[in-house]
Structures are given as C-alpha cells and as structure tokens.
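queue> pop job 88
queue> type: inverse folding (structure -> sequence)
queue> payload:
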C-alpha cells in the first residue's frame, strides 16, 4: 500500500487535495447545508408528544419572543388591556367559564375568534404571572387563560391595537390584567356582520 502511494497515486492524491482546497468554499457551504438539514430534520422528528412544547421554546429562542409574550397596552377608550406579543388585543367570552376554566367557542365561532395558544405566555409583562394558565380548548390544543378565562384574538382586528371585538354581541370583551372585562365603550360595534 505504501509503495503505491509513493508512485503515481501520490501525485493523484495531491491533485485531489488541490481541487478540494480550491473548492473549499463550495464544499464548506455544502457541508453546512447538509448539517443544517440534518439538525432541522432531527428537531422535526422528535415525536408528536413534545411537538407543542418544542415549537414554543424554538420561537422564544430564535428571536420570536414578540410572538410568545403577553403584556399590557393602554387603549384610549378602554384603559389598560392585555395583548399578545404582536400587539393583538386578547378577549374573553361570556359563554365561557373561569371556574372551572372552560372554552365554549365552537363551530364558526372558532374562525372569528381564534384561541390564544398557551405558548403565547412564554414572557409575561404587566400581568401577575400567577393569573396565567391554560385549558384544553375546543380544538383540543392548550389555550391561554387569564384568571381562569380562556383568551382569544378577533379575526376582524386588522392591526395591532385594534379593539373591534369589544362588546360584540354583548358577550365579547377585551380583557384587563386581572382577567376582568375592559370598560365598555359607549359605541360598541354592531353585531350584524359579526354573528356566527
């Protein structure tokens, strides 16, 4: 074996090394891409039992803390209300119960009033953390609760800070940091197009 390396194969090995050296950037990129693919695949195949927990921690660790936080905001008409990390107002529903905590938003209600995922409370600011909890929502997923009340966003809120859901049908309310209903405005949205 050593004799063959001292012969013509030695020169061939040197040529291969030179090619690899000149293509080191491309080779390094290829190795990096392969490693990244394997790492992502490993995360995705960790099993269904831990998938919801890993997605929340991944969002928090990758700079997605804005999407996994609950904090307060000041609304000129409603006072201090609770919003999610993207600034979307969080609401409570009078048909739900806080003790025991239970969600009763089903059917077309779910499309208009998406449940706030329990992972949204990875970071809590302006709200007593002991009031934050979760309940199994009507979709079978963990839903965020505040003082026992299941929380929702409203599909008609087009941007952060919108409170179009306040007072809808007289049963939907922006939530305060204690879990209470935010003060109703004098001109609540009509329920004509917001029914389900």
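queue> result:
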């Amino acid at each position: 074996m050593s004799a063959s390396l001292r012969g013509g194969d030695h020169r061939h090995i040197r040529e291969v090394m030179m090619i690899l050296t000149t293509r080191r950037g491309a080779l390094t990129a290829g190795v990096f891409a392969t490693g990244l693919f394997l790492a992502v695949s490993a995360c995705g195949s960790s099993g269904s039992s831990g998938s919801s927990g890993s997605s929340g921690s991944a969002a928090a660790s990758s700079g997605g803390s804005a999407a996994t936080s609950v904090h307060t905001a000041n609304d000129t008409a409603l006072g201090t209300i609770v919003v999610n990390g993207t600034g979307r107002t969080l609401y409570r529903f009078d048909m739900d119960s806080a003790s025991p905590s239970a969600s009763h938003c089903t059917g077309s209600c779910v499309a208009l009033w998406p449940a706030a995922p329990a992972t949204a409370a990875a970071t809590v600011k302006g709200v007593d953390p002991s009031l934050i909890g979760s309940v199994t929502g009507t979709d079978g997923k963990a839903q965020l609760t505040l003082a026992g009340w299941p929380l929702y966003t409203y599909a008609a809120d087009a941007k952060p800070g919108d409170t179009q859901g306040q007072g809808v049908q007289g049963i939907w309310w922006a939530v305060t940091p204690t879990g209470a209903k935010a003060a109703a405005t004098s001109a609540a949205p009509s329920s004509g197009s917001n029914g389900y």
